[in-house]
Amino acid sequence: MTDSTAALPTGPSPDRRLRVLAAMSGGVDSAVAAARAAEAGHDVTGVHLALSANPQSFRTGARGCCTLEDSRDARRAADVIGIPFYVWDLAERFKADVVEDFVAEYEAGRTPNPCLRCNEKIKFAALLDKALALGFDAVCTGHYATVVVGADGHRELHRASDAAKDQSYVLGVLDEQQLAHALFPLGDTRATKEEIRAEAERRGLAVAKKPDSHDICFIADGDTQGFLARHLGTAEGDILDETGERVGTHTGAYGYTVGQRKGLRLGHPAPDGKPRYVLDISPVDNTVTVGPAEALDVTALTAIRPRWCGTPPAGPGAYTAQLRAHGAETPVTAELADGELRVAFAAPVRGVAPGQAVVLYDGTRVVGSATIATTTRAVRARG
Questions:
Q1: Residue 246 DSSP SS3
Q2: Which of the listed CATH numbers 2.30.30, 2.170.140, 1.25.10, 2.40.50 matches domain 236-292?
Q3: Is position 217 annotated as part of the catalytic site?
Q4: What are the tRNA-specific 2-thiouridylase MnmA-like central domain coordinates in residue numbering (predicted)?
């Protein structure tokens, strides 16, 4: 494992003036990031991504380039900063690569992360490709993460200076080539969110007091199960306990995720009276299996489609892993074998669902990420 290189120069070619395309969602973070990039002397152009064919169908105030309100807020921020501003229509690409992928993953019994997919397919693929074709040097966003240049000249992705705001998990899909063209002006600040808002107010940005939203931007009312039902229809099935006994029914197995406790509507309480959790989802026979919390303990997993933020690991190694955007780190050993990432946990973890991303860290450095395919459960002792 290596020490943090957070003291090294950050971003792509920081010693020269860059042509920067600032992705402006209409929120405070991306506005301050664009302002900082311009203040640093870069030639900045703002762009708002129109990701919905019908922006009114997305929730008002949603964070993430989704509403007419957000587009107008982004334009006003660009005017205050004094940079050119455009709106780019990526609605069809977003629908295919993010929304349809989200629905297909749930239909297959997996639990996807649409923000991670958006970073991979939209902001640092479709947007970055277009930016480079137009002669820009880098794409700037309001993510809290840091790009540093290692001693060997390779760029690395590191956690933000303030771990409480760190967003490196959802950027773990970026490869070194993409990192070479990424700027995260907020990543090296230890300012609280209140201080970022105060900075926005000092700069005259009206978004300073705009509330954040952490919901999925393309689900207008925040009702994920209702959204999936509209796209996949309803199909009544059984909820089973560990013995195979029917303890309830559901209207679509896709509406559940491993580790879920609330909203199960079980007709029969557990014999011991303890809460039950979703253990498995089977789209083939449309069943959901529930059981006690300890049955969720996972000791190992296999993940597919690995993406590396630099050179892939040469062999087995000790790392820490993060399994959710705001989850804690846990010690693991991991190795790449036959194109799959195999991870073993030092202690059992719970709520690990196929479809989620596992992101590996070496200190503060993001090693890479992969999509969880299978898990190995701890053996439960029975009396």
A1: strand
A2: 2.30.30
A3: yes
A4: 226-291
Q: Do domains 19-209 and 297-377 have the same CATH topology?
A: no
Which residue ranges make up each domain of the chain?
Answer: 19-209, 236-292, 297-377
pLDDT of residue 4: 33
Report in angstroms the alpha-carbon separations of 183 from 30, 43, 335. Answer: 11, 13, 30
Strand partners, 334: 317, 343
> Has 49 been labeled as part of a binding site?
yes
Closest CA to 88 of 180, 25, 34: 25
* Catalytic residue (one of 65, 118, 140, 309): 118
Mean pLDDT of 215-235: 85
CATH number of 297-377: 2.40.30.10
**At CB < 8 A and 24+ separation, what contacts does 243-252 make?**
247/276, 247/290, 248/290, 250/288, 252/225, 252/228, 252/286
DSSP H/E element including 240: strand 237-240
d(CA 42, CA 311): 29
**pLDDT tens-digit map of 140-177:** 999 999 999 877 888 999 999 888 889 999 999 999 99
Residue 300 known to bind ligand: no
Residue with tokens 């969602």: 25
- β-strand partners of 361: 320, 366
Rounded CA-CA distance 281/258 in Å is: 7
Nearest CA to 99 among 156, 52, 60? Answer: 52
Find the catalytic residue in 65, 140, 217, 309.
217
For the question of residue 115 being annotated catalytic, the response is: no
198: left (phi over 0), alpha (psi -120 to 50) or beta: alpha
Superfamily of domain covering 19-209 = HUPs (3.40.50.620)
Q: Give this prediction's pTM.
A: 0.89
Dist CA 147 CA 62 (whole Å): 27
28 is in an annotated binding site: yes
